[in-house]
Amino acid sequence: MTSHHRAAAEYLKPARRKGTAHLSDLGSLITWANRFKGETSVLFGKPDLTAPTLTCVADYHANGPVDTTAPGGDPTARHCHHRAIYNFPLSEEWKAWMKISGKGLEKDEMGEFIEANAKDIMDPTPPVLTLSQNDKNKPWENRLIETAQNIEGRYGQLRQLLAMSRQFTVFESSDLKVSTNRDTGESEIQFLNEHKGADGKPLSLPNLIIIAIPVFLNGAPYRMPVRFRYRKSGGSVKFILSVYNPEKAFEAAFEEAVNAAADATTLPVLMGTPET
Asked: What's the predicted TM-score (pTM) here?
């Protein structure tokens, strides 16, 4: 059969399925997979923090080693040309917090961000506020308390952040400290910087807040600590909000979605991307 004959035959009826469907939600990928799956179909999950995907290859290679001796070619080989891809849409809340995480913000910038995203910030419950870990707490409360204790943190409330963003003045005083090692006679000189408020008292600020945001669009919210710091440089102050260990929330949300697809389709899951 010549190439012209094959082209004419495929014009009347495709010889095989091929093409890639780009689907808009997880349910559609599950429906697609159940519609076209066979004994060799496989799901591929790509847990990319910025562009996660779930791909179904309906005509993936069959199990077993390559057989190069078969007269008609490897019986386990498939074309792998019939696919569907779901690009997980990250939530607007997730994208907003990841964008500013770890970056230095001016006072007004921080204030505008906090006011625009106040709905994402939850005030700590009494046990979390006092870092009182016990069996009566909810599991997520004890997890937040344990995180704060591990990084020597203390949770604050939304109103404290808003107040700081509206009026925050830092005065810095430097004191000289000289210490001597009596055994060796060596001396050590240090400048001790102490940040004080306008009233002259040492600043006592919370260094953690709690946000509850979904990882994926329309997904369940995940509670995460956010480290709050400030850095004085000359006459200006930079505020830094850093989401603590966001990878853990992402992995939990991604795993939940992939497991749901695997259960609904009864297909095996491989983490990564299929061969091109």
From this structure: 0.79
